[in-house]
C-alpha cells in the first residue's frame, strides 16, 4: 500500500512538471509571435498616421498599384544630425517581393517634381505578402460601402474612405502571421 502511494506521488510530480513545462513553452511561443509582429505593427501605425492626415494636394496624387500605395504627407527633409525640418512631400509604402520586405520611400515635393528616386528604407523583413483593401461607396448611394481589392477613383473623390493593409509575415514555426491595420481618411 505504501509503495502505491509513493508511486502515485512520483507520477503526480512528473505530470506536474510536464504540465508546467508545456505551459512555459506555450507562453514562450506566444512571446516570440508578439516580438515578431512588433516591427510590422509599428510600421503600420506610421503608415496609418500619415494616411489619416494626408492632405488633398493636386501636385502629388494618391496612387495605388498592386502592393504599393503613395500619397502626399509631411516628410523630414533635414540631413541626419540636423534639427527636424518638416515639409510637404510624397511617401510611398510598397512590398519588395525579391527581398520579402515592406519598405518606405519619402521625398520632398521638389524631389518628386524633378523625378528623383529616393532610397527605400526597409521597415519590416520576412514579409510573404501585402494585401491592400479599399472602402469605397457604391454608385448607388443607398447601398452600403464595401471593401475592395482595387480602388476606383470616383469623380472628385481623391481618396477612398478607408484603406486596410495586411502584412503576412513568415512565422518562426513555418506558419503565417497576419498583421492588419485600417486607416480612415477624414476628407471623405
Radius of gyration: 24 Å
Largest sheet: 5 strands, antiparallel
- What order do the SSEs take from the amino end to the carboxyl end, as H and E? HEEEEHEEEEE
Task: Please work out how many helical segments DSSP would assign.
Answer: 2
Count of individual beta strands: 9
Strand content: 35-45%
The computed structural class is alpha+beta
Low-confidence stretches: none
| Global mean pLDDT | 84
Summarize the amount of helix as a percent range: 25-40%
- Give the count of structural domains: 1
Shape type: elongated
Query: In order across it, which strands form the biggest sheet?
Result: 1-2-3-4-5
Oligomer: single chain
Calculate the terminal CA-CA distance, rounded to whole Å: 79 Å
Amino acid at each position: 500500500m505504501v509503495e502505491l502511494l509513493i508511486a502515485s506521488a512520483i507520477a503526480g510530480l512528473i505530470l506536474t512538471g510536464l504540465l508546467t513545462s508545456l505551459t512555459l513553452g506555450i507562453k514562450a511561443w506566444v512571446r516570440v509571435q508578439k516580438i515578431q509582429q512588433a516591427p510590422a505593427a509599428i510600421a503600420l501605425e506610421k503608415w496609418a498616421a500619415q494616411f489619416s492626415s494626408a492632405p488633398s494636394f493636386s501636385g502629388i496624387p494618391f496612387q495605388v498599384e498592386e502592393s504599393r500605395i503613395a500619397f502626399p504627407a509631411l516628410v523630414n527633409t533635414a540631413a541626419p544630425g540636423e534639427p527636424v525640418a518638416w515639409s510637404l512631400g510624397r511617401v510611398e509604402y510598397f512590398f519588395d517581393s525579391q527581398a520579402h520586405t515592406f519598405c518606405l520611400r519619402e521625398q520632398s515635393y521638389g524631389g518628386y517634381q524633378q523625378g528623383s528616386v529616393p532610397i527605400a528604407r526597409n521597415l519590416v523583413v520576412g514579409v510573404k505578402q501585402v494585401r491592400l483593401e479599399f472602402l469605397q461607396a457604391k454608385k448607388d448611394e443607398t447601398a452600403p460601402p464595401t471593401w475592395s481589392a482595387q480602388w476606383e477613383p470616383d469623380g472628385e473623390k481623391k481618396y477612398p474612405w478607408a484603406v486596410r493593409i495586411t502584412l503576412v509575415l513568415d512565422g518562426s514555426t513555418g506558419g503565417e502571421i497576419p498583421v492588419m491595420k485600417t486607416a480612415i481618411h477624414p476628407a471623405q
